[in-house]
Each structure stands twice: as structure tokens, then as C-alpha cells.
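User: Can you recover a sequence for this backbone? Please restate the input before giving your answer.

Assistant: Of course. Working from this structure:
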């Protein structure tokens, strides 16, 4: 059985190269994977170097995904979306971008991390105002939590929003905001109240829209990796945000953030395993062709042992991720299990890519080789979404330690 999308035909059997022995996908998912794979090959890979040079994906990319129904997957049908509740489709997106050795820019943050807040906490008026544009890809979003002096300690947020009539006056600064440069709307975590006994109280989610007076976007921060994913500094100088742009109840943001962290951390784990799988695949191809001392590098015992170990560890990581995906769809994924998935998979990603790059020798250090980009991109996955140290703390607490 085969299905045709756009520029080519892809048989379901062809899709099994990254789905061997996986039981979480159906033929509907395979059809979606075929569409995504063809789209990436035809419309992303040929221009990806331009994305890297620009420091972000073009706006036309999001609109094209809207045309395909991808940006609106989770948006209810009443607002122009598909109303899909399963995370499996987002996982396929991450896997297919990694397979093609490219990245989706800030798309994954927009869909997997920011959109759930709109879906869970937007009022009916906000849904009517924002959801059709979210579904079409015309509206891109970001979330601003991290501050220059506040990383994983969200309770230490100092950006303030003081109530003033029918709105808030927002002041402060945020940094390392993924998608902040091209975002049309940014969910800002701001302090609206003070409680000396519990710093987690008094945080509120406010949607700041591009063009609001006093809202400024700084430079697109240069990074070690993930170059087509824009990362911004944002400042707020007496920005007047109407109360109609508040998501959820005032003072409840810390709880809201905690509710979405398992999905955020799982999405990082999914991408980490997919990138490591891609590193293994290109390394196997390389060592078969590359010769040293008159014979293929693949013929050496060290090469075989290294890649055999990598393949085995990746099989274990994939099983862990697939179970977590099932648990998320079933409403069973706990913060502890998500922390385990992120910790194991991101640490493994870094080990795998490092071992694979070693087998490329000096060529692996050259930027023109995809393995070097995979190496640079892998480093941040142990930092964002909660550092490995934070993940170990969460897991340790679950053990009563």
C-alpha cells in the first residue's frame, strides 16, 4: 500500500526504517509521516542553509504548514483545526525533521510547549480571537519564562505586572526566549502578587502581542547550535496589557506551568532520540564508505563494537520514549516519568553523537558535515526544559531522598 503526497510516493514499508518493532503508530500515522517526509524533502531541505543564515525559518514556512493542517492539529475543529488530541503526530514531526538532518526552527516550541496553554486556559472570547490564526499558521507564539537572573527557579521571577484599571502594566526583561523574534504573541510569566511565605504564588500568564507600545524585541542571540531557531531577549517597559489577554486565573501561573512540564520534557526526549538515531544512520553509511589502512572503517572491531553499543542503547531509549508517549495520550504521564525520559534520552543523545563524530575523524569536526551540526545541537538539550541536575532532583525526591 502506498500514498502519494505532493512530490513523491512513499510506501508504508519504507517508513519502517525508524519504526521497527514500534507499536504506537497506525496506518493513519504512517500516512501523516509520508506527507511530512515528502514536505520536508521538497520544501525544507533545499532551503535549509538559508534558514541557518537568517537565524530563523521564514513566515511562509508556518503558513505552508497551516495549509497542510499541521499547525492546526490540536486546535478544535470549530476554529479551523483538526481537533487531534494525540501527541503521536507531533512526535512524528520531530522524528522526520531529525531524519532529514534539519530542524523545524521554533515550530516545536510553538506547537508542543506554547499551544497547550492556549488550549487549556483560553476563554471563549480568546479562542474566537486567536484560534483561527493559530490553526492557519498566521499566528506564531512563544513563552517567556527565563529572566537574566532566573533560570530553572521560576519562583524567582521578578518581571512585574501591576493591575491598572481594566488591564496590567508590565515591566521587566526575559532572555533565551525560543521563537521570540518571529512570534506574534508571547505568553509572559509575570509577578502580579507577593507572598513571602511562598514565592510560587502570585505568578500570572499574560499574552503580549507584537506591536504593543513598550514591548521590544532585542537581538537574535547567536548560539552554539540550533541556528535556524531564533532565540530572543525581550524587554517590557510600561507595556499595557488588557485583562482580556490574561490566560487563566490571576496568580495561578506556577500551577499551570507545572501541568505542562511533562509534555514539554517528553517532546525534548523525543527529539533527542530522533537526532541520535539520525547520527547513527549517517555514521553507519560513512564508515562503510570511508577507508583507513586500505580497508573500510566499518571492518574494524572497534567500529563494530562502538556502533553496536549505540544501537542497543537507542533501542532502550526508544522503548522508554514510546511508553511515555502512550502515557501522555492516556493522561498518565507523571512529572517523574517525564523527567526520567528527558534525563536518559538527552544524556544518551550527547554520548551517541560524540561517539559517532569520533568515527568520522577530522571530517566530523568540519561544519560542512551534518554530524558536526548534530553535535552542536545536542548540547542544549541537557539544559533547556530543566537541566539534567533538576531532572535528577525530581527523580530523587520521588525516591524519598
Amino acid at each position: 500500500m502506498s500514498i502519494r503526497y505532493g512530490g513523491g510516493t512513499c510506501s508504508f514499508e519504507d517508513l519502517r526504517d525508524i519504526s521497527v518493532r514500534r507499536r504506537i503508530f497506525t496506518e493513519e500515522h504512517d500516512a501523516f509521516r509520508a506527507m511530512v517526509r515528502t514536505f520536508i524533502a521538497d520544501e525544507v531541505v533545499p532551503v535549509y542553509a538559508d534558514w541557518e543564515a537568517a537565524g530563523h525559518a521564514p513566515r511562509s514556512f508556518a503558513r505552508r504548514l497551516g495549509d497542510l493542517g499541521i499547525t492546526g492539529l490540536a486546535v478544535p475543529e470549530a476554529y479551523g483545526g483538526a481537533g487531534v488530541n494525540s501527541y503521536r503526530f507531533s512526535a512524528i514531526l520531530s522524528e522526520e525533521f531529525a531524519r532529514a538532518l534539519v530542524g523545524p526552527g521554533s515550530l516545536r516550541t510553538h506547537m508542543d510547549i506554547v499551544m497547550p496553554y492556549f488550549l487549556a486556559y483560553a476563554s471563549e472570547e480568546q479562542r474566537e480571537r486567536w484560534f483561527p490564526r493559530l490553526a492557519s499558521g498566521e499566528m506564531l507564539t512563544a513563552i517567556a519564562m527565563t529572566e537574566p537572573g532566573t533560570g530553572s527557579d521560576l519562583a524567582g521571577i521578578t518581571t512585574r505586572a501591576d493591575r491598572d484599571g481594566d488591564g496590567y502594566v508590565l515591566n521587566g526583561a526575559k532572555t533565551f526566549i525560543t521563537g521570540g523574534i518571529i512570534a506574534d504573541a508571547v505568553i509572559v510569566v509575570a509577578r502580579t502578587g507577593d507572598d513571602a511565605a511562598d514565592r510560587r504564588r502570585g505568578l500570572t500568564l499574560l499574552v503580549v502581542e507584537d506591536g504593543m507600545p513598550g514591548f521590544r524585541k532585542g537581538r537574535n542571540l547567536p548560539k552554539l547550535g540550533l541556528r535556524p531557531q531564533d532565540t530572543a531577549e525581550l524587554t517590557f517597559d510600561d507595556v499595557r496589557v488588557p485583562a482580556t489577554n490574561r490566560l487563566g486565573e490571576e496568580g495561578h501561573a506556577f500551577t499551570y506551568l507545572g501541568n505542562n512540564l511533562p509534555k514539554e520534557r517528553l517532546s525534548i526526549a523525543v527529539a533527542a532520540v530522533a537526532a541520535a538515531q539520525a547520527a547513527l544512520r549517517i555514521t553507519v553509511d560513512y564508515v562503510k564508505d570511508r577507508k583507513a589502512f586500505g580497508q573500510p572503517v566499518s571492518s574494524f572491531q572497534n567500529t563494530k563494537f562502538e556502533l553496536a553499543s549505540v544501537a542497543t542503547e537507542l533501542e532502550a531509549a526508544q522503548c522508554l520514549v514510546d511508553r511515555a508517549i502512550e502515557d501522555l495520550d492516556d493522561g498518565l504521564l507523571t512529572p517523574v516519568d517525564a523527567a526520567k525520559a528527558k534525563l536518559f534520552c538527552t544524556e544518551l543523545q550527547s554520548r551517541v553523537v560524540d561517539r559517532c563524530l569520533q568515527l568520522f575523524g577530522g571530517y566530523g569536526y568540519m561544519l560542512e558535515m551534518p554530524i558536526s551540526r548534530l553535535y552542536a545541537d545536542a548540547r542544549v538539550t541537557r539544559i533547556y526544559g530543566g537541566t539534567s541536575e533538576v531532572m535528577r532532583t525530581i527523580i530523587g525526591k520521588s525516591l524519598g531522598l
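That completes the design. The radius of gyration is 22 Å.
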